[in-house]
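hey m, so remember when u said the C-alpha cells were messed up on ur end? i reran from scratch. heres the input so u can diff it against urs
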Amino acid sequence: MRTTQSPNAPRAVRARWRVLAGAATGALAVALAGCGIAPTDVIDAGEPAGGVKSPGQQVADVQLFFYGPSGLRSATRPAKAPVDPEQAIELLMEGPNHAERMRGLSSVLPKFPAPLTASSSEGKVVITLPVNAKLLDSASLNQLVCTAANARVPGDKPPGQVAVTVVGDAVRVGPMVCGGNNAFPVVQPTPGASANSGSGEAGGGVG
C-alpha cells in the first residue's frame, strides 16, 4: 500500500528542527553558565590582566617593584581606587602574581615576623619594620622605597621627589628617593654652606 505524503510534511519537519535547535542552544547556554563560563558578561574575579581597563573605568594603578633578569622592574596592577604606601607595601609583601612571575619577576624581600606599616605626610613616607632597619640589604630597600614613593602620597609630588625613610628597632635608614629603578639617599645641603657662600660673595664685593 502506497502512503501518500502530505504536502505540508516538509514544512512540519523544518519547524521541528527549529524547535530542537533552539532547545539545544538553550541547554548549551545553561551548561556554560553552570561551568562558570559567561560568553557575554565580564566576571570580576581572579588576577586582573595587567593594564587592561574597561571603557569609562577610573584610572587607578598601583606600581609594585620586583626584580627581573635585568634588575629592578615595576609591575603595574589596575586598582579600584588610589593605593596609599601601606596598602602598596602589603601587596608587595604578597609577592608577584602569576602574570608577573611569567615575566620572570620575583621578590628579594625577607619574611618579617610581623607586618610592615607606613605613614605618609606632605611628600614623605616613613616605613616601620618589625626588625632592625640596618638588616635590610640595598635590593630590599629598593623594592620598599620605590613601591612606597609610587603610591598615593599627600602633596602630589612626583615619585622621584618623595622622601622615604625606613625605621626599625630604633634605627633609621634614609631619607631616600626612588631615582629610576633604584633608591638613593636624599642629598642634604651642608650646614652653613649658604651662609659661607653669602659671606664669600659679600667679601668679594667689598674687596
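this time it looks ok to me. Residues 11 and 17 are 10 Å apart (CA to CA). if urs says something different then somethings off w ur setup not the seq
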